[in-house]
Amino acid sequence: MRFFGLLLLSLVLTACGGHYTKVIETPDTRELKGWQKPYEVDGQRYQPLRDHQGFSQRGVASWYGKKFHGRLTSNGETYDMYAMTAAHKTLPLGVEVKVVNQRNGKSTVVRINDRGPFVAGRIIDLSYSAAKKLDVVEQGTAPVEIVALGYPHHEGAKTTYSAPLDYDAGSFAVQVGAFSQPDNAKRLAQKLKPRFGRTEVHFSHGDGRALYRVRVGDFKSLNMAESSRETLRNNGFPGAFVVAFDE
Fold it and tell me: pTM of the entire structure?
């Protein structure tokens, strides 16, 4: 165990596809649940969402099966290729998601219990059974739309969710830096304000020290925020990552 910079502590876990995941702890994330903490895979940092509400996404789905059957998933369960589960990079673990194959219109519901897929362009990794229901097994991948339903409540044969009907809700920002001195944070925020419009210096205090985090933008979808994050990473802010603006 070694400390770098802002007392950054990395714990090694395994995610879908056999990737090794470094779960990152800092003073301001130490009290979060395990699935809420930021993590890093292959040099890429991911910020799990605190809330599933309003989440929808389009992209490519893939699946994983026999090779990983019986291995541990990111939430500590044993992966069962015949269960209706899936892996997603940022949705809260335990949330159920409706997945629609845009090629054939078939749909199913899966529970997120793992992290991944860590392949460019892919947004969800389905279990074998889920992929079979959507006719994804033979082709390997398919364009899909996913909508977060929430945590299920079972009443006999009926399942209900506590998700809102407005799946366009949400406000995201990109965190570009964190400073121990407020003046440094304010200068960076002012520098980026003409480009992004909204900027915020978010104060937190933990482990006996103050931290001033600079966040920019006001994005109404995760995809928009991730696009700006990539632009920032390619322009001098390699540690930029997406957050909910009001967290």
Answer: 0.60
